[in-house]
Inverse folding.
């Protein structure tokens, strides 16, 4: 490896000596940035005072490094250090590696990639390997979840109506309830200018496969190359509000001959389209060129120098183009180095969602709308097309797609789309005519056992807000303590939901573990972390009955006890959700407590305390029917546990 790095550095020095005086990057050693938390910004990005509000939404992200949201999460900086520390070449020793580069300058006649000189284009082969049938998702033939249309009178009694539809809905795990009339818009309760929240950044392409394939190989090699030059990449470069896809940028530029050929032919606009750059990005071409100069141009020169030497050493032999060799190296390394890919997947323990920015609801809607328009510039974002595109990204895992998601926003600090009722009377189980179910009061109604909780529990007794954009995802999970949940979409586009019935949860868990054994062996509680997706087709193949439904503004989605569910947004969405617990949930509460004890997981509230409170407050015959068997089971478990302690001599 040391020999390889010396020769590569020599190639860079030779390329620098032969390059024109207006070379867009200085190839001499530069100073390192002080710390990852203070990344250097391009002058135009940090000093411009005349940018409008929309642009600042995007530029704000570029001034930050991404840090992760939990102890299970890994920062961009950590990920880069891990990549550079591997210092492995994607090449297996062939003469096309930069290690064989001479100290001579690159040829000025480096050809654009049209087809390989061997007759078969590696670029087209790579594209074919990652192709995706647009009809694939439609052909999965996933059954639809039930949809209910209550009458005006039925709708006035929310918990009674949910109890009525439970025998059907729980067989699917989820269902949709369409109110009999439209609701007042969310803006009557929330000011989009003052409603502010912090987002998480989700890498959609890594929701199933943590190892990003050729892109990871390329970045690891690039980090090693830059470190040899004393120019370590301290954090992923930020561009247009997300991590810049360095591999895709390098490939697209060099398919067209390299930096100078793209510049002379005014080809940067085409690169912007291929990278799906938004029209709100500040000076997009100038900023993209600056990033290319800073991180990729020296590597381009080194690869061209190495390629010219290869041609001189074997003048009578046909060779693929330089960029095809780069792609081939990354693909071959990805396919032949399973151990390294396993190492990457072992790092799943560090995988999570990055900390994003703080946005107002108004600014986030602009960001989300802009992202959707650049992803579907022809307006072909019908629900089937969006669903197909989402699963293409997740299943292929080879295209860097990073989105913002404002999740788990406590209404007590952020505000609710429903009226916050003070001194609510739990005996009042009716909603006002022409009003939708208020998620602030529904969990506290008399039919919900949460009316007996003494302290509020965020997300359980008080709702949380969820603000999404195209591809924002909620990964497979079931609710804390196997509770019911209800989700209402206030405004936006659509959300696709998938569900698996609670009585099929063990089948679902087994299918997930068999499909992703390495992830589960490393992190047994993977499903409780909400960071993993698997397609409904894969579940269906594993004999897991799965259903789907499409949520529109004004729709309620109900998830039933222990039911696994997942989904994603089709664009800008504002939703609100809360848990609730009718009496029929109590057996699931006991079941969840037993499971949590076995896996050493904490309950979100004390079930025993809740049940004792219920028993002391003159429960109704209907409640007693569910409560008594649960109390008897808890008593028996406690008696058995105490007897075991006595037998071991732990207590008198």
């Amino acid at each position: 490896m040391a020999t390889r790095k010396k020769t590569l550095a020599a190639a860079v020095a030779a390329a620098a000596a032969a390059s024109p005086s207006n070379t867009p990057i200085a190839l001499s050693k530069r100073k390192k940035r002080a710390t990852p938390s203070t990344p250097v910004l391009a002058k135009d990005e940090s000093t411009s005072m005349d940018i409008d509000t929309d642009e600042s939404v995007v530029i704000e992200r570029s001034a930050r490094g991404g840090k992760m949201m939990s102890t299970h999460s890994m920062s961009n900086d950590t990920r880069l250090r891990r990549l550079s520390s591997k210092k492995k070449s994607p090449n297996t020793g062939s003469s096309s590696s930069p290690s064989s580069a001479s100290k001579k300058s690159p040829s000025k006649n480096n050809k654009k990639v049209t087809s390989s000189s061997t007759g078969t284009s590696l670029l087209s082969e790579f594209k074919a390997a990652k192709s995706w049938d647009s009809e694939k998702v439609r052909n999965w033939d996933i059954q639809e979840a039930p949809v209910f249309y209550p009458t005006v009178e039925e709708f006035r009694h929310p918990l009674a109506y949910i109890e009525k539809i439970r025998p059907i809905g729980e067989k699917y795990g989820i269902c949709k309830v369409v109110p009999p009339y439209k609701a007042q818009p969310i803006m009557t309760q929330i000011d989009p200018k003052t409603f502010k929240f912090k987002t998480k950044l989700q890498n959609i392409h890594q929701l199933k496969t943590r190892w990003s394939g050729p892109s990871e190989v390329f970045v690891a090699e690039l980090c090693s190359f830059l470190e040899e030059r004393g120019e370590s990449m301290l954090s992923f470069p930020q561009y247009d509000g997300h991590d810049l896809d360095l591999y895709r940028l390098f490939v697209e530029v060099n398919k067209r001959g390299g930096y100078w050929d793209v510049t002379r032919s005014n080809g940067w606009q085409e690169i912007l389209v291929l990278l799906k750059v938004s029209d709100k990005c500040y000076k997009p071409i100038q900023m993209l060129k600056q990033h290319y100069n800073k991180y990729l141009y020296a590597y381009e020169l080194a690869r061209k120098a190495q390629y010219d030497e290869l041609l001189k050493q074997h003048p009578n032999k046909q060779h693929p183009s330089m960029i095809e060799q780069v792609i081939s190296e990354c693909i071959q390394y990805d396919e032949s180095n399973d151990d390294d890919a396993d190492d990457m997947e072992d790092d799943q323990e560090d995988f999570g969602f990055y900390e994003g920015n703080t946005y107002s609801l108004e600014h986030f809607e602009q960001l989300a709308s802009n992202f959707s328009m650049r992803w579907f510039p022809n307006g072909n974002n019908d629900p089937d097309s969006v669903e197909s595109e989402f699963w293409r990204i997740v299943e292929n895992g080879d295209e860097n797609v990073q989105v913002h998601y404002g999740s788990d926003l406590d209404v007590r600090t952020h505000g609710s789309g429903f009226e916050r009722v003070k001194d609510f009377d739990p005996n009042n189980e009716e909603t006002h005519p022409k009003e939708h179910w208020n998620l602030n009061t529904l969990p506290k109604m008399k039919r919900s056992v949460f009316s007996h909780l003494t302290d509020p529990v965020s997300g359980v007794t008080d709702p949380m807000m969820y603000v999404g954009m195209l591809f924002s995802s909620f990964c497979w999970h079931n609710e804390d303590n196997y509770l019911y949940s209800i989700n209402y979409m206030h405004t936006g586009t659509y959300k696709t939901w998938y569900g698996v019935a609670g009585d099929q949860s063990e089948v679902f868990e087994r299918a997930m573990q068999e499909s992703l054994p390495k992830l589960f062996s490393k992190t047994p509680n993977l499903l409780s972390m909400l960071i993993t997706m698997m397609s409904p087709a894969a579940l269906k193949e594993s004999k897991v009955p799965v259903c789907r439904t499409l949520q529109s503004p004004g729709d309620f989605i109900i998830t039933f006890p222990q039911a696994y569910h997942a989904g994603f947004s089709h664009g800008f969405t504002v939703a609100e959700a809360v848990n609730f617990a009718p009496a029929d949930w109590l057996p699931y509460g006991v079941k969840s407590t037993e499971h949590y004890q076995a896996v050493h997981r904490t309950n979100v509230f004390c079930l025993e305390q809740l049940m004792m409170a219920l028993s002391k407050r003159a429960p109704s015959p209907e409640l007693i029917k569910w409560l008594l068997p649960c109390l008897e089971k808890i008593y028996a478990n406690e008696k058995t546990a105490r007897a075991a302690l006595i037998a071991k001599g732990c207590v008198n």
Summary: The first strand starts at residue 143 and ends at 144. The chain has three domains: 2-127+211-346, 166-197+354-581, 584-652. Residues 1-75, 86-111, 113-129, 338-350 have pLDDT under 50 and may be disordered.
